[in-house]
Q: What sequence folds into this?
């Protein structure tokens, strides 16, 4: 299922979130199970299925990483359930440095400054990855899709790092 077609929006990495939300509300109204309260069991089940599909499509398209994964899957590249290892040694080294920095935060005297610095680093790197991803997904070449898949893998890792940083930040207030 092409979620861009379902929402009748252009298949681009950049989406108008307001337009997406508006289309979501319209689709939900059209397929909501309450509209089929007096329908046959088959129609009710179909409405529930369509509602779930619309919900999944919306969640996918509004999230940049999931949107990119969907765009790649439409090109025949499925990275959702893969076990491909990262081959970018520079990124692997940076990843280890960030992991060490996260560990060092726990014993840091000025943890708030450390958190702010890491948040800045993560944000800057993520911004660059998203820009690279945007360019690669706009390119129809198969090689661009492979590079885009690597960008998505890196973004997924950055999301995990960000989650870990948030957990550390939350532990300050417990």
A:
């Amino acid at each position: 299922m092409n979620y861009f077609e379902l929402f009748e929006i252009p298949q681009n990495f950049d989406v108008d979130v307001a337009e997406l939300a508006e289309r979501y509300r319209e689709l939900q109204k059209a397929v909501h199970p309450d509209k089929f309260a007096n329908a046959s069991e088959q129609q009710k089940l179909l409405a529930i299925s369509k509602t779930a599909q619309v919900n999944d499509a919306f969640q996918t398209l509004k999230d940049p990483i999931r949107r990119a994964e969907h765009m790649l899957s439409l090109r025949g590249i499925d990275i959702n359930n893969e076990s491909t290892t990262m081959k970018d040694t520079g990124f692997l080294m940076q990843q280890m440095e960030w992991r060490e920095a996260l560990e060092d935060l726990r014993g840091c005297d000025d943890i708030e400054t450390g958190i702010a610095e890491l948040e800045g680093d993560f944000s800057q790197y993520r911004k660059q990855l998203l820009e690279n991803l945007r360019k690669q997904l706009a390119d129809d070449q198969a090689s661009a899709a492979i590079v885009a898949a690597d960008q998505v893998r890196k973004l997924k890792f950055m999301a995990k790092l960000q989650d870990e940083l948030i957990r550390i930040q939350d532990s300050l207030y417990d």
